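Quick one:
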Amino acid sequence: MASVHAEECDTCEEVALDVFDLIKDIRDPEKVETLEELNVVSEDCVTVKKLYKEGYLVTINFTPTVPHCSLATLIGLCLRVKLQRSLPYRHKVDIFITEGTHVTEEDINKQINDKERIAAAMENPNLRELVDSCLKERD
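Output:
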């Protein structure tokens, strides 16, 4: 039984690396750098747990560049949309601001984990265009 558990841990670590590879190149909405370059996300900020046979719980804790970052909600939205569009397997995604790194982290955490708010945000053409520009790969 221990080898099965070790195998699951290896798979979760591989999935976490895949997730990080997907999110690291998202561009900051205000700057030219990526979230990885700004230390908003790192490999350590992604954890994955097996939920069921072919499903995973993906948790991302990101760190805004400043405690009063006005675009933290947009960054969370970009992370969620990127994973919704890109993950090839069944998953549940929880995205949180790293504890103690933003003045309104509780409110933002609620917003970026609320399916209805995410859907409503993505119906706004201006917001959708902004998210798409952050997700666009560099030339």
